[in-house]
Specification:
By secondary structure, this protein is of the alpha/beta class. It contains eleven helices and nine strands.
Length: about 350
Amino acid sequence: MRDQSHNAVGLPVIHGRAAAIDIGARFHVVAVPPDLCGEPVRTFQAFTGEIEKLAEWLVSIGIETVAMESTGVYWVPVFEVLQDRGIEVVVANAREARAVPGRKSDVNDAQWLQRLHACGLLRASFRPERRVLCQAVRVKYAFIDAHAALYPVRRLCSTMAVHPSGYYAWKQQPVSERSANDKRVEALITQCWEASGRIYGYRKIRNDLHDMGEPCGKHRVARLMRLAGLRSHTGYGRRPGRYGGRPAMVAPNLLERQFAPTAPNKSWVTDITYIRTHEGWLYLCAVLDLFSRQVVGWSMGERMTKELALNALLMAVWRRKPTEEVVVHSDQGSQFSSHD
């Protein structure tokens, strides 16, 4: 039920539990009805902790609605904290509360704003969402252009904390030459990234651009790739399966870490690796002579089977034609531990 008592200027009070805040860059002045608190005017710093104390004080004395001026963007954190506490917040246009009686000061501004709000003489001003206020300047200009038919441009610019001259300059040329050039270079970066099988990072992409005759710095390439969501391929995921338990011992370890034989064709080691290509995975098996550290046999294939290891070993035997027994050392994988 509305309180129909009268205030000092003789107008009926609509909101008996209304407060007002004079927003500043360094501190905020809060005014509340004198009958609710012995200290009707208090000052709080513009820090997050102080704003939390401000909200707690308003809740403790039973404030239900708060009015504040839309000064730059300094009102945004106060607005959010008060809304989270369940307090109705009215962001008023500063022009409607400009005629302050007496000498102008922060305290008088807050008290006059509180009187106007208590009498229901303030209207809620235009209030953009926080996600727009935190965006880049060009996003704010686009937002102003989309709402220019509903609100005055100067009021929109004041609320978004931008200058009208910057908005009109953007309106003449919404896309700068730098942005247009970035779009062109981004298309070339995407082309090089796709041609590499989506593997290359910004360093190799920069080298490809230089080969194409497009001078571009590595930091610019990294920025454009980050904005486009392009990333280099780092590492290969481990295949699913069980890796615990006791390892299989098919053959004893005859090498015993003797990696320095005294003659060739005494000790060979072999292993399989995989290489990512544009057409898929390529598996390579190589046989290495520990004496000369030369690759004496190799084999490649689309699948990692026992034939891959056998072909590499047969090639090594065919090339070296050892006359004595050779120790062939490998891991205990299925390709090397088969009975063939």
